[in-house]
Write a structure and sequence with these properties.
Elements (H helix, E strand, L loop, with lengths): L6 E4 L10 E5 L3 H11 L6 E5 L2 E5 L3 H21 L4 E2 L5 E3 L4 E3 L3 E4 L3 H4 L14 E6 L7 H8 L3 E6 L2 E8 L2 E5 L13 H11 L1 H23 L1
Parallel strand pairs: 9-10
Antiparallel strand pairs: 1-2, 2-4, 3-4, 3-7, 5-8, 6-7, 8-9, 10-11, 11-12
Helix pairs in contact: 2-6, 5-6
């Protein structure tokens, strides 16, 4: 059993949000690794660790549903493009040399899929995921953009307040942009509407509509290049 006498603070969240989040300060890298080894991967909660500060949170239902739909959308894009992607969910991304770690809501290898196919990911020997996704319904006590940037993740999507924000990694952090690095043709501003439609027509129907939209865009691009 991992024990620690470090400062433990339960973070306040809005009254209408039933999220459990605990922050521990002064946690050594060794303690963090022991905790992760003991609890294993079969757990619902996720972590972020930044040089001694460990945040543990339990995702909300409101948080999980958009994340699952975004996963389906990325898979639909890959199918329509006829490319491989490797979805690794909340893969633990950590580097001892940086004393930083984070678990995205989901992540994908796209451009680098062939380099890591079938491999157990081990940073920094392996490249980081090409795309990480965060579905935010409450604020974090840890600056996750700083973590993702330090770990070298080139693209970050953040779904929050019915809006999808896209960031590309630049020197010193991330820059918000209006197009995806992995999928430049993707109509970013339209994605939230498909997520919202799922609430009335169902998730799979929303995914089918999204797939149809992607086909229309790709067909239009193909005709324009012919």
């Amino acid at each position: 059993m991992v024990t620690t006498d470090k400062t433990l603070v339960e973070q306040p969240v809005p009254a209408d949000v039933k999220e459990t989040r605990v922050v521990m300060k002064g946690v050594s890298w060794e303690t963090y690794k022991k905790l992760m080894a003991e609890v294993g991967d079969d757990r619902a909660w996720r972590i972020a660790y930044d040089r001694g500060v460990l945040e543990i949170r339990m995702p909300l239902e409101e948080h999980e549903e958009p994340k699952g739909l975004i996963e389906s959308f990325v898979e639909a894009i890959a199918d329509e493009l006829g490319i491989e992607v490797r979805k690794l969910g909340s893969l633990t991304l950590d580097r001892e040399d940086l004393t930083r770690a984070v678990e995205p809501d989901t992540c994908f290898y796209i451009q680098n899929e062939g380099l890591v196919r079938g491999r157990k990911i081990n940073l920094p020997e392996d490249p980081p995921p090409d795309l990480a996704v965060e579905s935010d319904y409450t604020s974090s006590s840890v600056n996750k953009q700083t973590l993702y940037s330090a770990l070298g993740v080139p693209e970050l999507w953040r779904y929050t307040k019915k809006t999808l924000l896209v960031y590309q990694r630049v020197e010193g952090g991330y820059e918000q942009c209006d197009r995806s690095l992995a999928f430049p043709f993707l109509p970013i501003t339209e994605i939230p509407s498909f997520i919202e439609q799922s609430r009335t027509i169902g998730q799979r129907s929303a995914v089918r509509l999204f797939r149809q939209r992607i086909r229309e865009i790709l067909d239009s691009e193909s005709m324009g290049n012919s």
